Amino acid sequence: MPNEVNRPLTAMSKEILFHTTFAHETSKTWVVFVHGAGGSSAIWFRQLKAYKKEYNVLLLDLRGHGKSNNLVQNFVDNNYSFNNVSKDIIDVLDHNNITSAHFVGISLGTIIIRNIAEIAPQYVSSMVLGGAVTRFNTRSNTLVYLGNTFKHFLPYMWLYRLFAFIMMPKKRHKESRLLFVREAKRLCQKEFIKWFKLAMDVNPLMQYFKEKDIDIPILYIMGKEDHMFLGPVKEMVKRHKNSVLQTIHHCGHVCNVERPDLFNQHSLAFIAQQNR
């Protein structure tokens, strides 16, 4: 029988996202995990055990994703913007009396974290951004354009499988591709279109973030084989004094799944350094 303090507490209401908290017996430090578009908090299954040993942990499902996919219609029908999606997470923090935390994100979730740091920096102690999206290159812009053109005519899962294969083409990326697609099946076509429209705001927002450094420590963890996003991250790190980049060999976009051992090692060491 586990100690009661380590049991997950779940919450679901019309105001807040579905989330799970894992309380640590002694630590007062919180770590918040933010998944990407089409995923859910389930993608952190290889991080949870290691992080629970050290810190209080908050997992959440973004609006329309995972167990937040049945939020009341008035909530779900709100306009999707990075500010609105960021505010969803801030509401969860307030609900749990979390005044500051270290944030760990993957893929599109990294943009949401960076946006929280912009609009409410008091909540963000540090950021670990895995498979970070800092800019769409020519290839990803082409994908977004084609997806936007055909999103009302083609089944969204067909588009999602195509995107997954283009982003993660190698044989060793197969597990990440399958996870990517399996989690996306929980989205309906309407939700997919909303998040796809949101993705079209990436470049203007990230151009603003590129020009403006932020006084919060950032660790980027990128797979060496993340051919769509590694280059732009390298450019970002060169410009920002509070950012560092850790690359992982033989690893693609979803680095927390493909190389969880190294992802956990680098991210936990970084957070421990910030707590000194």
UniProtKB/TrEMBL annotation:
Domain AB hydrolase-1, by residue range, is: 30-137
User: Which residues are in coiled coils?
Assistant: none
Q: Which GO terms describe its molecular function?
A: catalytic activity
Checking Pfam families in the record gives:
Abhydrolase_1 (PF00561)
Note the InterPro entries from the entry. Answer: AB_hydrolase_1, AB_hydrolase_fold, AB_hydrolase_sf, Epox_hydrolase-like
Q: Give the domain of life.
A: Bacteria
What PANTHER family does this protein map onto? MONOACYLGLYCEROL LIPASE
The protein, known as: AB hydrolase-1 domain-containing protein
